[in-house]
Amino acid sequence: MRKSIRFLDSNMLRALACLLMLCDHMWATIVPGNEWMTWVGRLAFPIFAFQIAEGFLHTSNFRKYAVRLLIFGLVSEVPFDLVYGSTMLYPFHQNVMFTLLLGLLAVKALDNAKEKHTVKAWLVGVLLAALCCLGAAVTFTDYGALGVATVIMFYLCREFRFAWAAQLGFMILFNFILFTGEYIPLTVLGHTFELQTQGFAVFALIPIWLYNGRKGVSSKALQYGFYAFYPVHLLVLYLLFTYAH
Predict the structure, then answer these.
(1) Phi and psi dihedrals of 187, rounded to 5?
(2) What is the pTM of this model?
(3) Rounded CA gap, 117 and 134, in Å?
(4) How many whole angstroms separate alpha carbon 93 and alpha carbon 139?
(5) Which of 21, 20, 142 minimizes the C-alpha distance to 90?
(6) 94 DSSP β-pair partners
C-alpha cells in the first residue's frame, strides 16, 4: 500500500473506534432494532486491539500504561455491569479494558522473550501469553481469549513482510471461524446461510491499513479523554435507557 494514502493517525483511529463502539452500544440500549449499528460496531474492538499493540511499541513507560488500563477498567466496571446486567455487580462478564490490559501484558511477555531470545525465555513468554488468554476466558472479559489473541496478533504481524495478509488471515480465523455469537440469515440462490455478525470486524483492517504511524496531536487531556469516554458513555446510555422508558 502506498504510504501517501495512509492518512489516519493514532488519534483519528481512536476517535473512529469510539464512534463505532458508541453505535454498537446505542443499538444495545436506546435504539434497538437498527441492526446496522451493531454490524459497524464490530469494527471497534480490532482497532482498539491494534492501538494497544502500537501503544506498547511507542510507550515510554510500560508500567504507567498498564496501570492506566487497570484503573479505567476498574472505573468502567460499574457502568458496564449496569448496561450489561442491569446491576452494579455482574460477575459473569467483565469490561473490555481488562481484555486490553491482558493483551498488553501478553505482548510484554512475548517482547521480553524476543529480547532475551533463548529457548527458556520463549517458553516462559509463550506460557505467560497463554495464561493471559486463559485469564480472559475464565474471568469472562469482553471478547475473551480471542480478544487477547487479537492484540497479540497485531503485535506479531508487524514484522512480517506481508503483514496485511497475515492480519487478514487471522482476523478471518478469529471472527468468522472461532468466534461464536449472533448470526444473520442470508439467502443466496435459494439457499440460506448463517453469516457470523462478528465477521464484520474484518473490515476494521481498512482503517488500520490507512494508519500512518503517527500519534497526532499530543495532549494529556485528549489522551485521558479517550479513556474516559468508555465509562462515561456507558453510564449516560444506561441513564437514558433507564429513565427514558
Answers:
(1) -100, 125
(2) 0.94
(3) 24
(4) 7
(5) 142
(6) 141
